[in-house]
Write the structure tokens for this entry.
Amino acid sequence: MPERYDSVDESIMDAALDRILQVGIRRASLEDIARRAGINRITIHRRFAGKDNLVEAVLERETRRMLTEVTAIATTASGVEAQLEETILHVLLQTRIHRLVTQLLRVAPEEALGFYTVQGERLVAIGIDYIVGMLTHAQAAGLVDRYDPRPVAELVARLAHSLMLTPGGGSVDFTDPELARAFVRHSIVPLMKHGIATTTEEVTDDDDRAHPHQASGKAT
């Protein structure tokens, strides 16, 4: 799907979102959506090639809107650690309490799990690309270490997607704001600042500790 839409596309997606929030995805017919948008069904097919693509476009648009909010929130924090903390907290929170999640679980719980499992691949991909871009920018500015940002971005994006439907059950209850903040501050922020140590780095570090004189170039 294109990332830029015209006013007709936007009105179709608005109508689709409203109807999905009312009755769920399966019961949101193209006839209802077209009537709400003030167009005919053929126009929806011409622009989105059917209901599945339309639903995917709606979900992607809502995800990108959330990430735009994240960027705005992050800029209000002072210092890279605080910005990373607020960014990840907002992502984790919104993927769990966004209206498209909570309302779909309320009006059509039987289809919510399947929907977010099927559509999850695209959501995770969008999240990964966003975090990679954020970390790449921070690296260029010298705010975080130089490392391959994609593995870190994938871990964080997959964590956010997992918490969307299962916020509890582990050692950290992410429904508790203070516990969630502590986890992000002490686990996620250091990960995003320094990256994941490679096997070579780990072996080198262990070897340096075992042979400190050799590592420093001094004779024993």
About this structure: The first helix runs from residue 7 to 23.
